[in-house]
Amino acid sequence: MNANDQSAVQARGLHFAYSGEKAIFSGLEMDVPLGSVYGLLGANGIGKSTLMKALVGLLPLQAGRINLLGGPIRQKAFQDVGLLIEQPNIYPHLSGVDNLLVMATYRKTERSRVSEVLNLVGLEEAGNKQVRHYSTGMKQRLGIALAILHRPRLLLLDEPANGLDPVGIVAIRRLIRALNQEEGMTILLSSHLLSEVEQSCTHLGILARGRLAYQGSLEGARSQLSQGLRLRLHCNPTGPALDAMRAAGWKADPGENGGLQLLLSGKPEISQVIDLLRGAGIDIHELIIEEDRLEDFFLSLYQ
User: Fold this and answer.
1) One domain for residues 190 and 276
2) Which of 32, 162, 175, 301 could form an S-S bond across to 38 if both were Cys, CB 3.0 to 4.6 Å?
3) Residue 2: pLDDT band by 50, 70, 90 thresholds?
4) Are residues 244 and 192 in the same domain?
């Protein structure tokens, strides 16, 4: 089995720049595993939407090649791919049902599918209401319903949680999980929210400086953390505490506001530090434990 058979999206050497401007991405390589929920993560304005458009042939590349579901874009982008990029393309004066019926006619999809997708996205009770009366979250869910009407194998969602309140964000997150696990769709979504990618995705690609600075499983990203602990503490007296910890072999340094900070290899060492300081007659006023976070890894790729 070759790589294309295992990848829903395979991109090699992608280069794109608007006329006379600096390249948005250059030499970009991307692999979205079949069956995954892949989060394309990056700061606002870095080119996530541009990349999503290029992947489905909406923007002309200056270089590179793309395979979707094992075949060229022209063969797959219409029949097997659904997309919601930027704002949903909906008719506000029509109802949700009528918007879907228009798309069903265009896609040559059976009309019975309309009620199925309304149930999937949780709009079954609002289907006959005019879309201009929908909330932002409801419009977003209708946009997803339009994108999945023809049962695509690959779904692209551009910032699906953008502009939503916490309730709307949770609803979209649950919908993404259901589409992946119950409908069998591979999902590529873009986001600038690390927390959403962590909670929704199985795989991650971090767009920085025109390339994917990291791509792989979410667990793979976590494994690149140091697995260490940083301990920040305020104690009295500070000088003898610093000397005692260094003498015991810990990497300890002066910290903020007269405190101390040290790097430990794991949680069992915390009690050893406490016992050491108490044994030396040193009072501990504050102790804060900081574990390496995925956010730290993300930010390190932009430095």
Assistant:
1) no
2) 32
3) very low
4) no
Is the CB of residue 211 less than 8 Å from the CB of residue 217? no
Whether residue 280 is found in the same domain as residue 260: yes
Q: Are 69 and 196 in the same domain?
A: yes
Q: What letter represents residue 197's amino acid?
A: V
Number of structural domains found in the chain: 2
The secondary element (H helix, E strand) that includes residue 220 is helix 218-223
In-domain check, residue 302: no
For tokens 């009295």, the residue is 236
Residue range 230-254: average pLDDT? 87
Q: What is the pTM of this model?
A: 0.77
pLDDT in tens, 105-155: 999 999 999 999 999 999 999 999 999 999 999 999 999 999 999 999 999
